[in-house]
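hey can u check if this looks right to u? its 488 residues, i copy pasted from the old doc so theres a chance i mangled smth
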Amino acid sequence: MQKILSALQIANLDQIHLKRKGFSNHAFMELVAQRFVDWFQSQGYASTERILVCAGAGNNGGDGLAIARILFSLGFTIEVAVCFSDEAKLSPDCSKNFSLLPSQIKSYPLGASSFPKDGILIDAYLGLGCTGPLREEAKERIQIMNSFVGTIISLDLPSGLPADSILSGEAVQADLTVTLGFPKLSLLLPEHAEYMGELVVLDIGFAKEELEGFSATTFFLEEADLFPLHRRFHRFAHKGDFGKILLVAGSKGKMGAAILASKAAFRTGTGLVTCLIPEEERSALAAAVPEAMCVFGDHQEFSAYDAIGIGPGLGMDQGELLKNMLSATQKPVVLDADALNCLAKNPSMWALIPKGSILTPHLKEFDRLFGHSENQLERMEKAKACCLKYTLNIVLKGANSLCSLADGRQVFNSTGSKYMATAGMGDALTGMLTSFLGQGYSPENAVLCGVFHHGLAGELAGAKYLRGTMAHDLIEAIPETYRRIGLD
C-alpha cells in the first residue's frame, strides 16, 4: 500500500529521489511533464483542442510550462496564462522553463479580459506550495479560472487546496486532478469533492525503498496490493472450505436487503449462505436466491457459523436480537445498517462486539454512533480511537471508503464510481465482507479485499450502465474483479 505523506514529507522525498537517481531538479521536472503528457495523450484529447496552461511562479508552474512546451511540440494549440506579476521571483526551474517556451506560444498575464472560455485549462498555479490564507490576487486568479466553462485539469492539487487539511477559502474547481506519485490526504476527503473532480494518480518513479524512511499511518490501497491478501483454494476444496455464513437481514417490506447481501456473498465465493429472516418472507428469498437456506426465530446456534453479518434491512427494533447474537459468538462479525443504529441506541453493547469485527457505517450512521463531526478529519480521529480501544475495524463508506483497522492504520480505497450512489450497495458490501470472513480471511484482509472488490465491481457495472447502475449489476460484476487482479 502506498503511504500518504504530508506536504513537508513530499518535499523531502523529492530530494531523496533526485539524489538517488542523480537527477537535477530540472530533469525531474521534465520527467514529470512527460509523464503527464503521456497520460494526456492516452485520454484521446484532439490536437485541435485549445489548451490554456495557467502557470504559477513556483515548481508547479514550472511543471505546467514544461507540459505546455511538450504539448506544443506534438502539434497541440497552446496558450500560457502567467499567474504572477512581472516583478515576481520565479523558482529557478520555473524561470528556466519559462525561458524555454517557444516564441510561437502566446503568453499573457491571467486576466478576465483575455481569458478564453472553453477548451482545456491545465491548472499549474499553486500546487503543494499553497499554505495559509490566499492573497487577494490569488483569490482573483482562482475566480477567473473557475469561470472557465471547458475542462479544467489540475496538476497535483487544485490551486488553493491545502495538501493536508480542510479548505477554508477558495480553490480551483477541477474536472480532473492528476496528482503526482500518490494522492494527497485532502484529495480523499468528501469536503473537497466539488474541487478535485475525478482523481488520477500519476506514477512519477518513486521507489519503495525511497519511502521506507517516512512514517505514515494513512495509506492508499491499490490493485497491486490485492493479490497477496487473497487465500487460494485447491481443486479438492468443497463448499465447507469456502465458508458457512449467516446473514441476519431483511424484514417486512425490506427483503431486498437480505437478497442482495446473500447474492453478493455467493458471488464473492461463499460455499453456504443461511439467512435469518422473518418466516413469512421465506418465499421472497427462496424465489430470488434458491441457493440460500433460511432459518427463523431469535434463538439460533450463532456459534455454528464461520462468520455472521447483521443489519441490512433488519429494522430498528432488533436490539435484543443483536445483543443475543453478540453474546453467543466470539468470532468477528460484520455490523451494518440497523445493527449500527441499534448499537447507537444501546452503547452498552460495544463491550460485547467480538474483537476483529467490522463495522460499516455511512456518514450519518457514523455520526449516530460517535456524535456530530465537523469534517472527515475529525471522523478519522474518532474511528481510529474506537478501533484501538475495542480492537475493531471500521469501514466509513463513501468515495474512497476509509478503512480504519484495529492496529491503528487507516487505508483509503482506490476503487469506486459515482454511479454506485444508489440503494442496496451497502447491502452488497455486507455480503462480501461476511463472505471473506467466512472463507477464512483475517479481519484486516477481509476489509481490504471487500472494499476493493466492491468498488471495482461498481466501476465495471458503472462503465456499462452509467446512471442506471443498480446494486444487482455490481453483484454480477464481482467475479470479473477476481480476474482483473489475476485470480480465478
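The longest helix spans residues 443-465.
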